[in-house]
Amino acid sequence: MPLRSDWSERPCPIARAIDVLGDPWTLLVLRELVYGVHRFEDIRANIESTDKTLSERLERMIDAGLVSRRQYSGTVRPRYEYLPTSAGRDALPILQSLAFWGAKHTEARDLDQPFAIVCLACGQETHRSETCSSCGAELTTGNTIWIRPTTRTGS
User: Fold this and answer.
1) pLDDT tens track for 76-127
2) CB-CB neighbours of 120 under 10 Å
3) pTM, 2 dp
4) Domain architecture of the chain: domains with CATH
5) Are 73 and 79 in contact (CB under 8 A)?
6) Distance between CA atoms of 131 and 49, rounded to whole angstroms?
7) DSSP 84-144
């Protein structure tokens, strides 16, 4: 029995998007890919998942067209890196909106450095998810830097 409903055939685009992007692990993996983390071991460590959980999510994401897989080493035991497809990169404004919402409406204790998104076109921090709040440039995976929040405890 499936753990959740299949909404892929629904007429509502929000329902269909949730069918693809609605799993928290999927969003965390996309976050890592947008950050530039592409290797399995690094993604797993950053999202703190098990090998099984990450493997399952990556396969689903490949099937959904969000991620592509490319071998980077090994013949006996191949190693792969995972790259966002255009569909995965198009999720950037969604991820940024979630990050801005979370920063505004949830509490993170003892932050030494808060989350921020910097537009490389102007070098300024932006407060919007699709276009830079300073220069108006469209924000893409190629022209933004995410400043990861850090805590005083070093995590």
Assistant:
1) 888 999 999 999 999 999 999 999 999 889 988 777 778 899 999 999 999 9
2) 14
3) 0.84
4) 13-89 (1.10.10.10), 92-151 (no CATH)
5) yes
6) 32
7) E-HHHHTTHHHHHHHHHHHHHHS--TTEEE--EEEETTT--EE--SSB-TTT-PBP-TTSE
